[in-house]
Design brief:
This protein is about 55% helix and about 10% strand. Strands 6-7-5-4-9-8 form a 6-stranded mixed β-sheet. Strands 1-3-2 form a 3-stranded antiparallel β-sheet, with helices on both faces. It has a two-stranded antiparallel ribbon with strand order 10-11. The protein contains 21 helices and 11 strands. It has 4 domains: about 50 residues, no CATH class; about 60 residues, no CATH class; about 70 residues, no CATH class; about 270 residues, Fic-like fold (Orthogonal Bundle), CATH 1.10.3290. A hairpin with a 2-residue loop joins strand 8 and strand 9.
Length: about 500
């Protein structure tokens, strides 16, 4: 790594100028040198030593706004406050220093031998300021960040700690010209302390869950964040869907038939056809038949399948309402109610009953920041499967919620044929136990493309295609044949 040199006095300045003239140094700006002519190395050195450069150019500079928090350049930019001067941007090689004038001796704390920064109370105020975007730059971290800091503070130091922050911010606000931000901060603190209604005040899932006394599964939330990060990296083609009444009905039938088969409600295809056509339960299989009929009631309803959640409350509402329909004929399974007892499959123990609602609220916050369509669909599928919020019917609910996301975005549904059951379930286990998401994304995305390739408008043709592809066979019997079809479809399934 190259070294940085600063002309801090006349003697040093003259020595550096002589070295520069001999070609030993690269001058980045007047008084600022590095001992390399490698551009990349020079840029790294300048960005790494931004504090020294800032104090060299402005001897009373204080790090403010997001820089006071991150303590490093964001998009090669740092935000500083000095006691006098106009607002301006000073460029030093790749480094941009955005300068504002204001208070530099109150509400500050040291973070480096060469510089101070805004203290926690002032950071909260500054990061609530309106921030115009400039090529992706925002000087303020925003209200969601402030809210997360307040939640962390009350968890760590209790109500007294939060009240101390509020009092200090109240003192600093008029000095710093941040009265409007102080009013907003005060409202957020009041909401967290429950001395003021939370409606419209708090924005993050964490904040809403905290004030609603909804604890959550932190390990699962971290897993959901990893999945969201993975989904943001991959490029997944989405298959468009154009509604046609008969094709929609046929697709909904196979969607319901396969989804129930995966969970152990198994009829032959001919038996399932008779149940749906007659709308009546098969002899001595009343509950199993109604599982199929109830699933079809949801998935064949275009209006219902276009409903997706816009808030965390809507998410839990959709889940409980659809589950109430799905298991209406199984009262012992508590249709429409979250579980009261822990559940598990094999060695996988799902989210504890007391953490279900809080975990869904937190998960919604992550879901909401993904683009509509396939990525939200895959995320919400895993969210529901991983939480397992109900005593029974969780897999079917996960797939219903997934397909609703696709329908709402005018994209093709995903069916999971019998032959893919083991691969599908194993891919979920891989994500749950090892935080590896490539396989589950690949399986579902390839099936999205496969489903779109079937001609659903004519039932006999659709059934013939599925049977020719071995879709209705058990995995041990038909997977090699079916995989010949899946190999036609691909996507950006990078490791992760």
């Amino acid at each position: 790594m190259a070294k940085l040199y600063l002309a801090t006095d006349i003697r040093t300045r003259n020595a550096l100028q002589r070295r520069f003239q001999r070609g030993e140094l690269l001058r980045v700006r007047k008084g600022v040198y590095v001992d390399t002519d490698d551009q990349a190395d020079a840029e790294k050195t300048i960005l790494r030593h931004w504090v020294k450069i800032a104090r060299f150019l402005f001897d009373d500079a204080v790090a403010v706004f997001r820089t006071a928090v991150e303590l490093e350049p964001h998009n090669r930019r740092v935000y500083l406050m000095v006691s006098e001067g106009e607002r301006r941007t000073v460029t030093v090689g790749p480094l941009k220093l955005t300068i504002e004038s204001g208070v530099v001796d109150q509400g500050v704390e040291p973070f480096d031998p060469d510089m101070s920064r805004s203290n926690p109370a002032r950071q909260l105020l500054e990061n609530l300021t309106p921030s115009r975007t400039r090529a992706g730059d925002k000087k303020a971290l925003g209200s969601a960040w402030v809210e997360s800091q307040l939640i962390a503070e009350v968890k760590k130091r209790g109500e007294d700690g939060l009240n101390r922050l509020r009092d200090e911010a109240k003192t600093l606000a008029p000095i710093s010209g941040l009265e409007k931000e102080q009013k907003q901060l005060n409202g957020m603190i009041a909401a967290i302390l429950k001395t003021h209604p939370t409606g419209g005040i708090l924005q993050t899932g964490e904040g809403i869950a905290f004030t609603a006394d909804k604890p959550f599964d932190a390990i699962r939330i971290e897993r959901f964040k990893q999945l969201a990060d993975y989904l943001k990296k991959v490029d997944l083609d989405m298959m468009p869907y154009q509604y046609k009444h008969m094709g929609w009905r046929h697709l909904a039938f196979f969607e319901s038939y396969y989804s129930n088969y995966i969970e152990g409600t198994r009829f032959t295809l001919d038996e399932a056809e008779d149940i749906i056509a007659s709308g009546k339960a098969a002899y001595e299989r009343h509950e199993d038949s109604h599982d199929l009929l109830s699933h079809m009631e949801i998935t064949a309803d275009l209006t219902e399948m276009m409903r997706v959640p816009n808030t965390a409350t809507e998410l839990t509402g959709l889940l409980t309402a659809r589950h109430g329909v799905l298991l209406a004929q199984r009262p012992e399974k508590r249709p429409g109610q979250f579980k009261e007892r822990p559940n598990q499959v094999g060695s996988t123990v799902f989210v504890s009953p007391d953490l279900v609602e809080g975990t869904l609220i937190q998960g919604f916050e992550i879901y909401h920041h993904l683009p509509a369509g396939i990525k939200r669909a895959l995320f919400i599928h895993f969210l529901i499967a991983e939480c397992h919020p109900f005593e029974d019917g969780n897999g079917r609910m996960a797939r219903i919620m997934m397909n609703a996301e696709l329908v709402a975005a005018a994209r093709h549904k995903i069916i999971i044929p019998i032959v893919c059951r083991d691969n599908y379930l194993e891919s979920l286990r891989d994500a749950t136990r090892r935080d590896r998401f490539r396989t589950t994304v690949k399986v579902l995305h390839q099936l999205h493309q496969y489903t779109a390739a079937i001609e659903w408008n004519y039932y006999d043709d659709a059934r013939a295609s599925l049977e020719a592809h071995a879709a209705n066979r058990e995995p041990d019997d038909g997977l090699m044949t079916f995989n010949k079809q899946l190999r036609k479809y691909t996507g950006d399934y990078r490791a992760g």
